[in-house]
Amino acid sequence: MKKYIMELHKKPLHHKKRFALLTAGSTTLVIFAFWSAIMFAAPSKVVESADTAVNLAAVPTSGVTPFQNIFHGIESSWLSLTKILTNGGN
What is the pLDDT of residues 10-42, one digit of tens each? Predict the structure, then answer.
């Protein structure tokens, strides 16, 4: 990879632009993956008051993974679009 980068300036312009697009796209994808993992994570449950002892080491058994929200949105959009296309908008 180091050799490729060192010789990149000798390549044609379209090759340089393709490499720049690939690099920028990959970086954007990584940033978006981290952002979505943080933003779409299930919120932690906060207890305001408890009358009994609380087990702080308990692990929640259910929750939404970061990408379930995204996939559910894509799925519902796809179903709506296919319904519109098959029914002619009705």
Answer: 999 999 999 999 999 999 999 999 888 877 776
DSSP letters spanning 9-71: GGS-HHHHHHHHHHHHHHHHHHHHHHHHHHHTSPPPP--S--SS---TTPPPS----HHHHHH
Nearest to 40 by CA among 67, 76, 60: 67
Task: Supply the pLDDT for residue 47.
Answer: 58
The pTM (predicted TM-score) of the whole model is 0.44
For residue 57, what are its two tokens?
Answer: 């080491």
Q: At what angle do helices 66-87 and 13-39 cross, to 10 degrees?
A: 110
Q: How many CA atoms lie within 13 A of 75 on its CB side?
A: 6
| Distance between CA atoms of residues 64 and 26, nearest Å | 26
d(CA 84, CA 74): 15
Tell me if residue 7 falls in helix, strand or coil.
coil
